[in-house]
Every structure is written in structure tokens, then in C-alpha cells.
Amino acid sequence: MTGYGQAQASGDGLTIKVEVQSLNSRFFDLTLRVGRQLQPHEGLIRKRSQEVMNRGKVTVSAAVAEDGRPAAQPKLDLDRIRQYRQLFETVQKETGVSGEINLDHYLSQNDIILHHEDEGDDSAAAILAEALEQALAQAVSMRQIEGANLAKDLRTRLEAVKVQNEAIREMAAGSRHEFLARYKARIEELAGAIPLDEGRLLQEVAMLAEKRDIEEECTRMASHCELFSGYLSTDEATGKRMGFLLQEMGREINTIGSKTNSMDISHAVVELKDELERMREQVQNIL
Question: 236-249 burial, b if ≥16 CB within 10 A, otherwise e?
């Protein structure tokens, strides 16, 4: 479900701004857009975002909006310098290249001078976490509003499925006697002058009618509808179960369509399939 949140937090002269955007997606897909100073804290953003959002195409942007802290004095990484010196001397020894190792060789390495953001900033992490929590909370709130509207739409469509299913059941029951009479007449027509055993004839007609009967499918459809309604009333994450249940409902409808030779029922089946497809599209956005 879609959602958006924006927040900023400040402390120790530092202000961090965070934006969270969420779009519909069946899975969790996170994109981070983090400023250089906050890159050491990407793990914090990734972990918390997945815990809260769980599903959707989520983009989190985080950057330092204002840094009023006094500039930290740059420091030399002496251990790293010693490592470079040993490396340079090894190169000379192995290659036979002569010459002095001077200051330029060290200054050409961009990792011997440490700045405050390179050392890991605990205060920045705390401020970032505060802004992130606020932005995520806003995005979740927006999702919940959309979720309520989505549930309302699904209930309306579910009711339409229930009504259509009962209509199919009634049409099938009303045409059962007509169906039996038509099959009996057709068999007698095909038999022509051949004498038929009335009991055997009725038995064969009943077997044919049994193969065309859709009462069980309609009953299972009604049961699936009740279960789906229960999913809509719970606070649990039921998106996957709803998707599976809609697949089962689709199978029942396909069976009804394959069994019937009633034009009215066939039309109702088409409408039911259309309603179920719309529900399936909506359910893909539910956790």
C-alpha cells in the first residue's frame, strides 16, 4: 500500500531529515538514498524499515540538513601510514626500483587522514533513528487509512460474490427438473423404436444430472466467502491467505462454468470471475 512520511530530528547542533515513500508491491523492496555522512548507518535504516514496513516498494531518503557542530580536527591514521611504509619498502625490494619514499607517496593515499564522519558518530545514529521512527510512523498511518478503504471495497465486492453465488444456486435448482426432462427426452429420441427399461433410463438420467450438479461447488463458494470475511475483520497479516483463498474460489467458479449448460449461469460465472479478479488485484497490496 502507498504511504509517505517525512520527519527531522535535531541534537548537538546536528539536524537530520528523513523521507519514507511506499508503493504497492507483493514483496519488500527497499531503496536507500543516504548522504555520505550517514552511510555508516545504512544498516540501521535497512533493518528498521523492513521491520516496520514489511512489504511494498519502499524508498528511504536520509541526509544531514544542518551540521552546526564544530569541525573536528583531522587526524592521521598512524597505523595505516606504517602499513603503507612497509608496503612501499616491499615494492622496492621485490621490483628493484630505487629512490626515496617521500611525503607525496603517502599523501596520494586518500585514507590516511580521518575526519569525524569516518570514525562513526553515535549522536548522529541516535538523531537519525529518531527521525526515521517518526517518518516510518507517518507512512504506516497513511497505509492504515488506505487499508481501511481497501477493506471497505473488498467487503462490497465480497457481498456481490455472495449474492451472485446464491443466484447461481437458485438458477441451478430451478432448472434441475427441466434438465432431467430434457435428458430423458433426448435419450428416448436417440433410442427411437428400441424399447427402454424405464428404471434403467431414470438411473442413467440421474447419473448424467449428478455430473452436472453444482450444489457442492456453490456450498464451498459460500464457505470460502465466510472465511474471507473473517480475514477482513482481523488485525493479523492475512494477505497471502486471502490470495490463496481467492485461487480456491476461482477453481470452484471454473468448475461451475464447465458443468453448466445454462446460458444464464454461464453469464453469472463470467461476472463472478471478473469480481474475483478485481479482488485478487486488491489483495496483492495487503500484508
Answer: eebbebbeebbeeb
